[in-house]
Write a structure and sequence with these properties.
The chain has 348 residues and is α/β, with parallel strands linked by helices. 25% of the residues lie in helices and 26% in strands. Helix 6 crosses helix 8.
């Protein structure tokens, strides 16, 4: 696994928009405030041509333009790392226009984003053997005051931190809108981890869990969309690192509980969960949903029970912030104990 050099104190941060850009509120004002903050901290700024674009469908620009920007800015020597402007809907359509061979042969560079950016963070690992950060997108850094999770994300990029702890409270309903673009996370709900351990016949609730393995995952909406395409090299990847085993970190955006269950079945049947050591689930956007007796827990536990590994659910990951930034491809130790979560990552 290749790990990029860390962002130096006066380094240049590159920004790309392979999914949505920051052309509308509240994202534009938040993004510009974030840029001002980074510049005040001494960082240089390298803006991609699509950062303020909004002419695409589900993405900032045409798939060709987005693929070209991503390839150019990843392989460019003008910046030290890349942060995606935002998530979106159809980043998958740019993949055929991304030169992954050029990216694989370029010096490794940190790329950070989440949600639709799974299309890059996941493929950097499985196609290019390069670590990336599944973490907040650029506009989030404009909130006032910034949430501690944003400081953790920057500390990862800077090489100042490799152990991340949970944040205690999370946001159920956001107060951020066009009129209040810099509003911080509205964290009102207590962190309530759900822990399940392998029992004799099924998964049983537990009070604590520990797991170790190589981190792999992202947004399930995107992952199942990649499955079976020419970009799916997961089989080769898990075989290469089978001695390490894997911790799959997963979260969902648009999927309801039945779609989550289908996604789990599909990934398992494709062999993705070979050599799994544990699962870490974020709070899905459908948190608390129940349909025909199926909830977010019973949506995943039947598949997990066949692998007899621990699972931690409702963690700080994904679309109900805050999110613990995770280095995809890194070796990690996850400890859930006393209602708190600690993820220690080794870059090896």
């Amino acid at each position: 696994m290749k790990y990029p050099q860390f962002l130096p104190p006066t380094g240049t941060i590159g920004f790309v928009a392979p999914s949505f850009g920051c052309n509308i509120e509240p994202y534009r004002t938040a993004f510009e405030n974030a840029l001002s903050r980074w510049q005040a901290q001494g960082y240089g700024i390298d803006l991609g041509p699509n950062c303020y674009a909004g002419c695409g469908i589900g993405i900032s620009n045409t798939p060709e333009a987005c693929g070209r920007e991503l390839t150019e800015y990843y392989t460019s020597g003008r910046n030290h790392c890349l942060i995606s402007c935002g998530g979106g809907e159809l980043m998958c359509e740019i993949l055929e226009h991304v030169d992954f061979e050029a990216i694989r042969n370029a010096p490794p560079k940190w790329y950070m984003g989440y949600s639709d950016n799974t299309n890059m963070t996941f493929l950097l690992a499985t196609l290019c053997d390069t670590a990336s950060v599944y973490g907040p997108c650029a506009a989030a850094f404009g909130m006032e005051p910034p949430h501690p999770s944003l400081g953790d994300a920057m500390a990862l990029l800077e090489g100042k931190k490799s152990t991340i702890n949970s944040y205690g409270k999370w946001e159920k309903e956001s107060l951020k809108n066009e009129e209040n673009p810099l509003t911080p996370y509205h964290c009102t709900e207590d962190l309530n981890l759900k822990i399940f351990l392998p029992g004799k016949d099924a998964m049983e609730e537990g009070s604590g869990a520990w797991m170790e393995g190589r981190l792999l995952g992202g947004c399930m909406d995107c992952l199942v969309n990649l499955l079976g395409t020419r970009f799916d090299r997961v089989g080769e990847f898990v075989e290469k690192y089978k001695e390490d085993g894997f911790i799959w970190f997963l979260e969902a955006c648009d999927l309801n509980v039945f779609a989550i269950r289908r996604a789990m079945w599909q990934m398992e049947q494709a062999g993705w969960f070979r050599y799994v050591k544990g699962f870490f689930f974020g709070r899905p956007l459908c948190h608390g949903q129940e349909m025909m007796g199926l909830d977010q827990y019973s949506a995943v536990l039947p598949v997990i029970s066949r692998h007899k590994v621990p699972v931690v659910m409702d963690g700080d990951l994904g679309h109900l912030p805050p999110m613990m930034p995770l280095v995809t491809g890194s070796m990690a130790r996850i400890k859930a104990e006393g209602g708190k979560l600690e993820i220690a990552m080794d870059f090896r």
